[in-house]
Amino acid sequence: MNKTADYQFTIVVPVYNEVDNIFALERELSAFLPLSLYPSCVLFVNDGSTDGSLERIRTVCERNKHFYYLSLERNSGLSAAMKAGIDAAQSPYVGYMDADLQTTPEDFNLLLRDIPEYELVMGIRANRKDGFFKRLQSKIANGFRRMMTHDGVQDTGCPLKVLHTDYAKRIPFFTGMHRFLPALILLQNGRVKQVPVRHFPRMAGKSKYHLWNRLVSPFFDCFVYRWMKKRYINYHVNEQNIA
């Protein structure tokens, strides 16, 4: 039996070479779980790390009752790691946060308050602690994405999101998908809400983002989304006798 089915909320944490952050993640996540608005568990997804992250993930999962993990055979990228976690989750709600701890799991409760009424509740990074050039890149990328997708989302790069799991599992996944989660939920006629959350400077590890994967690759991905939007199939069954 999939153990995530025993909870109402699964927090997916993709990890790629974040060995120096694993124990800090353990502290913050284990402190949050008793305070969560819903019975919650943590699902680490090791994305082919080569720095000892997997060994530390095994350690923290052994000593925390509500921590679980899965490990990908090789590094496959953030979207693949998110898909693996969502595919594995069997709780009604599934969330996501980065392993860099630039957001805090405490703020999941800000999102969980509204999740019964919305299919996606996502954070907006308030008072971002990134450098000027990184914020400028994000501003340009967010503006172009909004123009292309009309999703109305201010900060799709914020790594704090909560979704209805059944909607998340229907998302058409592709490399770079994580930038288009709101637009992909809207394709399903889902409702999206944005909530300000706290943002912190990275204290350990190295950012995996650079000019190519923050600006150039998302530019091309927007055209992929536009192509897919015209061909997306959306249906709802209103009667059946197979169950």
Describe this structure in words.
- The protein has 8 helices and 7 strands.
- The chain has 243 residues and is an alpha/beta fold.
- The protein has one domain: Spore Coat Polysaccharide Biosynthesis Protein SpsA, Chain A.
- A 7-stranded mixed β-sheet has the order 3-2-1-4-6-5-7, with helices on both faces.
- α5 runs parallel beside α8 (211-231).
- The mean pLDDT is 84.
Can you lay out the helices and strands and say which pair or pack?
Blueprint: E1 9-15, H1 22-32, E2 40-46, H2 53-62, E3 67-71, H3 78-88, E4 93-96, H4 108-112, E5 120-125, H5 132-149, E6 161-164, H6 165-169, H7 181-187, E7 192-197, H8 211-231
Parallel strand pairs: 1-2, 1-4, 2-3, 5-7
Antiparallel strand pairs: 4-6, 5-6
Helix pairs in contact: 5-8
